[in-house]
Amino acid sequence: MDDFRPTIFILTVFIHLLLLLPTPIAHDYSDALSKSILFFEGQRSGRLPKEQRMGWRGNSALNDGINLKTDLVGGYYDAGDNVKFHFPMAYTATMLAWSSVDFGSYMSGDDLGYNILALKWATDYLLKTVSQLPNRIFVQVGEAQADHDCWERPEDMDTPRTAFALDAPDPASDLAGEIAAALAAASIAFKQSDPIYSKILLDKAVETFQYADLHRGSYTDTPSVNQAVCPFYCSVNGYKDELLWGAAWLRRATGDDYYLKYLVNNRQPFGADYDIDEFGWDNKFGGVHVLVAKEVFEKNVTALGAYKDNAERMMCSYFPETAGPHMTYTPGGLLYKPGSSQLQNTAALSFLLLTYADYLSKSSQQLNCGNLNYEPDSLRRIVKQQVEYVLGDNPMKLSYMVGYGDQYPRQIHHRGASIPSVNVHPQAFGCIKGWDIFASPNPDPNILVGAVIGGPDVDDKFIAKRTNASDTEPTTYINAPFVGLFAYFKSNPNFS
Ligand SMILES: *[C@@H]1O[C@H](CO)[C@@H](O)[C@H](O)[C@H]1NC(C)=O
Ligand SMILES: *[C@@H]1O[C@H](CO)[C@@H](O)[C@H](O)[C@H]1NC(C)=O
């Protein structure tokens, strides 16, 4: 080959590659972000405000709390049913607040405003759940079994709206710890825009944490509550993670050394060093390590160094080439944990990765994993892969966010979305008739725009039917971390 001209050869190869490989379509993160926040309007319980944009929803559950002579109107339905479970609702609020606090700078004014409204819908309600402290804390409204036996829109509900409560000294360290975390995190989110509300949230967070710490144990230790909550939202991994989580958010919100000492003294006895790579509505340890690491990065508080070490070990586990235990990915590249509603894991684990990357960047540091070092962008690349997967770059070629693009599931496991709206069909369908709609092959009449649903299984397979709850049910705690993730990539659209 005497006439070999390398430049032309390389050019030719390059052009061939361009023709062969599908050009990846850049995702519209701005659209994904605003939709991920809009979703929360579809989950609203109570009296809807006139600014309500999700127009197919109506008022619902306007007498909640009446059996305990209190006002428990408002808040969010957790998923595709009509129960208000306060434990995952509080975690949702914490994650909306964290999205706002650490990723708000990446949002436009509109998105930030709507995110704050979505958060306030939760915190206004959470304040009601702790309005009778120090004696009583409200746990849940609605009877899960009776609710799940019906396929009814929230606007038609005729199932018992029983409210459940715990009275001192019934333990509630997990529930109250998470509510304290939510209120403390939200107090930071509201500090600029509404200092009076911020102060109310913070005072209540302190008081709620006192209940959590004083009455130690799980909220499901009390049989009546256990019956109401389990098997849906029992705190399977125990309550000690929520005590540290509540303390960590209170430390960040107040700077008070009481919480610093609490974190230092209880890390080992609470088992935090042995539980480093989990994060979700049940297990908060991963979140505790990352959140506390921020203070170590910023102020070199050596007393908290062990939390940062744990966070670092967790971060190293996302990289398959490092030594030690590893996160699991599906063949298609999705972060995966055993269990149902996969994308809840993807959302929470990606959130920690992106947050930690931010803390590294701001302190000009790298992630150290033995003899391997990673720039913050290496962490972000894993996160980018996750959000791209969720928005459609996956083996099923589907967006797992409802209403994003034009390839998304048309049937989701969500009562309100699947039954015609009260605007077009004011008469109630009733408990049983709804099951015909549930089983029908028809697409949902109402689009729950922005809902990120449970998503695919370990093999990237997905069944786009509302009968498959694990795959097609949306939940508030899947969406909340995604708000922060989409905000980052909206601001950095060309990140690669
Ligand atoms: C952090 O503090 C420790 C001991 O107080 C000190 O040895 C170390 O150099 C400090 N690190 C930085 C980055 O300032
Ligand atoms: C839901 O779909 C997944 C595949 O994504 C499958 O593994 C699971 O068995 C299905 N569950 C039901 C109840 O159909």
TrEMBL record:
InterPro entries: 6-hairpin_glycosidase_sf, 6hp_glycosidase-like_sf, Glyco_hydro_9, Glyco_hydro_9_His_AS. It comes from Thlaspi arvense (Field penny-cress). Its EC number is 3.2.1.4. It catalyses: Endohydrolysis of (1->4)-beta-D-glucosidic linkages in cellulose, lichenin and cereal beta-D-glucans. It comes from the Eukaryota. This is Endoglucanase. The active site is at H413. Keywords: Carbohydrate metabolism, Cell wall biogenesis/degradation, Cellulose degradation, Glycosidase, Hydrolase, Polysaccharide degradation, Signal.
